[in-house]
Amino acid sequence: MTEKKWVLMTNDDGIEAPGFEHLVKAMNSAGIPLVAFAPSTNKSACSMQLNLGKPIDLHNRRELIEEWDLDETVGVHLFALDGTPCDTMIVALDGGLKHVLPDVEPSLVLSGVNLGPNLSQDSYHSGTMGAAREAGLYGLPAIASSYTSFDPAGMQVGIEATIELVQRVLPLVPRIPKNLCRPHIDARSKHVSAWPKKAVQRSQSEADQQLMSAFRHGELMLNLNVPPEWNRSYQTTRLGMRWYRNAVKFAESEKGSVESIFTIGAAYIDNEMVDRGDCDSVAAGYASISSLPTWPQTHPLTLDDQLLAFALRQDESGHPTWFKG
Questions:
Q1: pLDDT at 45
Q2: In terms of CB atoms within 10 Å, which end of the chain has fewer, N or C?
Q3: Residues 70, 47: one domain?
Q4: CATH code where residue 232 lies
């Protein structure tokens, strides 16, 4: 009998957010074993913030299994951490999960479904993406998923697209992750950047294999964005171009000790067309799948530009061709 592949789930909207509840239910209905380490409260837009040197409480939210009418025979455990999305991944992957569930080892991380888009430079602000990136830093393949509307009423399409992507990706990753906590740090792997040396030339087949290796080792993550008017198709994309205009509102304070009061929140968003950009893909009704490097540019484990160019190639279903690598 094939042993279970567990998915480690988190988000940045909090464990009781509607999107997380619906996604957990859908994962459970699809027969996918899951363990959640999610923030206790809403931690949106906290990027990769950490709580350093501060005790963080972990709560077993077993009561939600009954409240959400989940099938325990599939495999489901729900925990809430009084921390940030990145805290949840560090705690889970650096010993916390093994401490509370010694027999569970995750094969994949799923962060989301976020309420609101994570497109373009949102990728730097997002706690949803921060958690997926942190999982990658720990050597685990990860998906970040977002529904691009702030109205939760239509979020079901985001749930459906996410489940489809998980079911597509889960068979591609090993049950026991080979690189969890990075037992061997190898900056000479074929999928990492040769910078500042000249980029390595590759064939399509070689690139697909190396991109798959990068995903399995945590050097590459997936970012899914699903629009409310999803046309049931996917596109493989890159980060697009958008800019938040008039992002700060301010008011004078009546308190003598306060100079002014500022509120961050854009009045409107400028989008500029970019070839294969995620913003443009979502605007056209597609679910956008972006393959993004986990490590920052110039880090020895980041991916070089030539290899990432191959990551833009898609098959007839709109998925990256490297899924077949």
A1: 87
A2: N
A3: yes
A4: 3.40.1210.10
